[in-house]
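Postdoc handover notes: sequence design on the structure in folder B. Input tokens:
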């Protein structure tokens, strides 16, 4: 069955998909007590990634976090959303 699935896939030729660079995980130490949303903004996260990165850190955007907390953030281009 696996061979059937693999052989039924078409070859990837879309230059947009072939040229995608991965995002990298970066660690950010929070300087002072604040909300998760503000800490992520301070780290350079763009607004449309706030929800995803809060989830990656097991936080809600309104959660309060203490100074010294280390958050995971992502660098690099956002992954394009597939449309069909």
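Designed sequence:
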């Amino acid at each position: 069955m696996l061979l059937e699935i693999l052989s039924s896939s078409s070859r990837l030729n879309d230059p947009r998909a072939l040229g995608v660079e991965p995002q990298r995980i970066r660690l950010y130490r929070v300087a002072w007590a604040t909300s998760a949303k503000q800490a992520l903004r301070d780290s350079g996260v763009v607004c449309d990634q706030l929800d995803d990165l809060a989830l990656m850190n097991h936080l809600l955007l309104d959660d309060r976090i203490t100074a010294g907390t280390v958050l995971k953030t992502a660098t690099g281009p956002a992954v394009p959303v597939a449309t069909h």
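Context for whoever picks this up: The first helix runs from residue 2 to 8. Don't rerun without checking with the PI first.
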